Amino acid sequence: MIISASRRTDIPAFYSEWFLNRIREGYLMVRNPMNIHQVSKISLSPENVDCIVFWTKNPKPMLDKLSELNNYKYYFQFTLTSYDKSIEPNVPEKKYLINTFRELSNLIGKEKVIWRYDPILTTDKFNVDYHVKWFEVLAKKLSGYTQRCVISFIDLYKKTERNLKGINLVPISIETMHEIACNFSLIASGYNISIETCSEDIDFSKYNIKHGKCIDDELISRITGKRLISRKDPNQRSACGCIKAIDIGAYDTCKHNCIYCYANINRNVVMKNTQLHNVKSPLLYGQLNEKDKIYERWNS
After folding, report:
1. First CA to last CA distance, the chain
2. Which of 55, 104, 106, 253 is the most exposed place for a label (fewest CB within 10 A)?
3. 72-92 per-residue burial string, b: 16 or more CB within 10 A, e: under 16
4. Ramachandran assignment for 144, one of left (phi > 0), alpha (psi -120 to 50 degrees), beta (any other)
5. What's the CA gap between 1 and 43, in Å, rounded?
6. Percent of the chain residues topping a pLDDT of 90
7. Model confidence over 95-144: pLDDT tens digits?
8. Residue 64 CB contacts under 8 Å (≥ 6 apart), including other chains
């Protein structure tokens, strides 16, 4: 079983104490976002968990607690972009995050820290030249601390479009995507970093950029030392290459409040939900009630 922690929220940044409490208890519970009264009870026993994939913009709160995961195999997807507070209002300063990235890499190894520069969006300020310039700054800083960078271009879901109102978003053409991909590839190769795309149909193979798998059976096999029998996750988009995993997060709980985020409706809902967070609860937020039906899941 593979645990995704989490596409829906930033567990390392905001809920690491809760997560480690669940590790100690050996299980957690997660609501089905499509049927809130369907609750899965998920084993966190090392015997049942093949690998944990963390998704984060700030793993710092977990770094001094990683020894509690010594019985687990895991890696991090670490999003580090060039946006300012107008786009990522509650994400820490870049210098802090670069240092955190390096610290994490030194602790667990550069193969286990995947750099994400995504989603790529363009405005009058954040144009192609801006992205190319700052991508190189970051690549230089992260050289030797990661082997892989994942990129994607923004998808405009309804809630994303609503949250992006007022920033003069410039639509990204196919030509612009190719221009960015070509420049990023040239830069990354100079710093011994390979680039992959996340959930993109567009073919960048001529720039030595391949379609990636964020939850990656090949990487997991290398980390665990055993061949993983896996299949594509049917709950993800058709362009997504990820293998099947159980996501343990909850939507509308990420306090970074990035305006491009598809996982939050708005800040008010996030504030309401996070007030219901209890570090000792088996659920990320809220409590069980009489309408809930619990289903035990010991594998994916």
Report:
1. 5
2. 106
3. bbbbbbbbbbbbeeebbeebe
4. left
5. 9
6. 87
7. 999 999 999 999 999 999 999 999 999 999 999 999 999 999 999 999 99
8. none
Residue whose entry in the numeric block shows the structure tokens 């271009």: 153
**243 with 232: CB under 8 angstroms?**
yes
Encoded tokens for 216: 């990656």
Q: Is 154 exposed, middle or buried (0-12, 13-18, 19+ CB in 10 A)?
A: middle
Quick: pLDDT tens for 226-253: 887 777 877 777 778 888 999 999 999 9
Which pair of structure tokens corresponds to residue 163?
């949250």
What is the three-state SS of the chain? CEEEECCCCCHHHHCHHHHHHHHHHCEEEEEECCEEEEEEEEECCCCCCCEEEEEECCCHHHHHHHHHHCCCCEEEEEECCCCCCCCCCCCCCHHHHHHHHHHHHHHHCHHHEEEEEEEECECCCCCHHHHHHHHHHHHHHHECCECEEEEEECCCCHHHHHHCCCCCCECCCHHHHHHHHHHHHHHHHHCCCEEEECCCCCCCHHHCCEECCCCCHHHHHHHHCCCCCCCECCCCCCCCCCECCEECCCCCCCCCCCCCCCCCCCHHHHHHHHCCCCCCCCCCCCCCCCCCEEEEECCC
d(Cα 253, Cα 6) in Å, to the nearest integer? 11
Six-digit token string for 125: 């300020």
**Entry field: residues in the chain:** 300
